[in-house]
Write a structure and sequence with these properties.
The protein has seven helices and no strands. The chain is mostly helical. It has a domain of 47 residues. The longest helix has 20 residues. The two termini are 91 Å apart. 0% of the residues are buried.
Length: 134
């Protein structure tokens, strides 16, 4: 197989039969001294970088969108003002019916408000009779 010959630790390649290896000597000399960039080169790089940056006189204030309040969120969840007015009307009617006595409700339904025959509600509807058959 092949053997790896690592001569990186040596600043100069060994002279034993490899004097004619000019490329190896060149790389060994390059490893001995690390090149540093010049000051004029760094100044040109900095000038180019500053020329590419956007010019902003002052940062614009960040404007966050306003979130609606809790009542606005509730109004939107109920379907807007139409849903809110329908719900308010149903609540008012429920309170009126719940608080009123039976005698005062007879004005709306006529006769005996507590009787089921007057309201036209059948306790055994057709659906219930269908379930009883079997």
């Amino acid at each position: 197989m092949t053997e790896r010959k690592d001569n990186r630790d040596d600043p100069v390649l060994p002279k034993g039969g490899q004097e004619d290896d000019a490329l190896g000597l060149f790389f060994a000399a390059a490893r001995a001294e690390t090149p540093q960039p010049g000051g004029d080169f760094l100044a040109r790089i900095e000038a180019q970088a500053l020329a590419e940056q956007p010019r902003v006189s002052s940062p614009a204030p960040v404007v966050l969108p306003r979130r609606p309040g809790r009542l606005a969120q509730l109004r939107d969840a109920l379907g807007g003002w139409i849903g809110v007015t329908g719900l308010a009307t149903a609540c008012a009617a429920g309170i009126l019916i719940g608080v009123s006595s039976q005698d005062s409700l007879s004005v709306f339904w006529g006769g005996d408000a507590a009787g089921l025959g007057t309201l036209g509600v059948d306790p055994l509807s057709g659906f219930d009779l269908a379930l009883m058959e079997g």
